[in-house]
Amino acid sequence: MLEGSTATVGTQTIPLQAAIDPLVFVGVAFGVFLFAAIAAPIVLLSVRETREPTADERDRITTVAEAADYEPRAVHVVETVGDRSVEVSLRGPPGRRSLIVTDYVLSELEDETAAALLAAEAGRSTLLYMEYRALAAATVIAIATGMFGGLIPFSEGLFVLAVAALGLFWGGRRLQFSADSLAAAQVGPASLASAFETVAALRGIEPEGSTWRTWFEVQPPLGQRVERLRDRS
């Protein structure tokens, strides 16, 4: 029986039944956003235009996968749109990741560079980095929903939101550094750093280092990742 029961929200005591609705609303918002964030890459994989690798490409993939010590469940090749199209990514549920790779990677990049890029993705996959990012984003959305739904007083909610976001972003950056360490242990920190720099050069960008903005990002800047790898090597 809920009749006559109360709950404390912030500094106010309100009927328990009135407190349940915001809790359900926050829970639904958290669950929906988390599901969407995790499912989106899987859905994108199913609708993306790809092809099976050729015999030569499959041999190349085998060589690269052995060097990276990672065997994907399946391989999908994306036809390059223009020159210097570089993509090496793993998509799908944990334990059943599929490799998405552009034909440019297989035809133009050296084995060492391609293997380092795959090892980097494998490290992120092993540590469930993308799932962590989805969880972090869903948590922030849930806190914000609780604020606007009246579950958390707005002034207190802003503080909770800031602390949670900074903590979750910090955790995401630590997780990315750990994934880089796993990849570096497989292919070497110098090779991994060089691979990151090669991709940046092909894309015409300059890897940025850490700044005050880094505190508000879940993904550490590429320049900081390269610098840490260079220090290790």
Structure report:
The structure is a single chain. With 233 residues, the protein is mainly α. The chain has helices spanning 16-47, 55-68, 103-108, 111-126, 129-148, 154-187, 189-203, 222-232; strands at residues 6-9, 12-15, 74-78, 88-91, 98-102. It contains eight helices and five strands, in the order E-E-H-H-E-E-E-H-H-H-H-H-H. Strand 4 and strand 5 form a beta hairpin. Helix 2 (55-68) packs across helix 4, helix 5 (129-148) runs antiparallel to helix 6 (154-187) and helix 6 (154-187) crosses helix 7. The protein is globular. The chain starts with 5 loop residues before the first strand and ends with a helix. The model is unreliable at 1-7 and 14-19 (pLDDT under 50).
The helix content is 55-70%
Q: Unreliable stretches, pLDDT < 50, 5 or more residues?
A: 1-7, 14-19
- Give the termini distance in whole angstroms: 65 Å
Secondary-structure element pattern, one letter each? EEHHEEEHHHHHH
How many H/I helical runs? 8
Spatial strand order of the main sheet:
3-5-4
Q: State the shape.
A: globular
Overall pLDDT level: 84
Q: Please state the structural category.
A: mainly alpha
Number of beta strands: 5
